[in-house]
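A note from the maintainers: we've had questions about how concatenated examples are separated. There is no special marker in the raw files; a new sequence line simply starts the next protein. For clarity in this README we add a label.
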Amino acid sequence: MKPGTKIFVLGVTVECSATELGDPEATEEELRACAEEMAAQLGFGTPVVTVDGEFVSLRAIETGPVEYVLPADNILGETDPALLSGQFVALGFATLLHPLPPGEHEIMIDFDGDGDIDNTTTIIVDPNA
């Protein structure tokens, strides 16, 4: 990546859509409650993120309702035309990293804060990029 590039890091996110609720008229409150329930069921705590071994502070984030349209061959396997579009609400933890200096950097994410690293990403900042 080019020097000077900021990096948006998602520690963990969860969302709930009208499709997942099976209700094309689901309200923002219903979608938010569903997303919160999903996070609880999945056991999401506060994730831990490190960059080159240093802890990074995360912020809790949530969206308002976001419109979506699913393709006919979608990941949810939904075929009901009334449920192929609607709204979703997402919750999670994220941060925007300042640009990293040239070299190789490691971003590690422990999604639930249990000490087990769930994702490791290597970033190479190349001044010649």
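[label: protein 2]
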Amino acid sequence: MADVTRKSGASSDVTEELLSKAHMYEEIEQGEDFKKLTRARRNFIIPAMIIFIVYYFGMLVLINYFPSLMETDVIGSINLAYVMALSQFILAWAIAFAYLRVSTNVFDKLITKIIASVKHSDEKAGRPVRKENK
């Protein structure tokens, strides 16, 4: 089997850079702000997913086990099954809107704090500070 490792200085620089990045990511993951961010995301996503799934399968259960209820006309010839089916679109948009608000008010603030702490640790370690993409 051929030796595929390079002996040049360029590859060792790349390896050191990758190790440095890996260490930086581990440092970020262990930070309190990152843990708050993942906790906040999980605390939003899991309940939102459960609400939508229960609503969706609840409609299917109602249609299968209580067809006479779901055939009840609500507005003209539009029955309760159609209303529930169309309301799923409204629920999906409501969840998306709620996620947008939580993302803007909570997630983005935590992400900004994480980025600031990474920049601060870069400055302390003497690494070049990354510029933000705009």
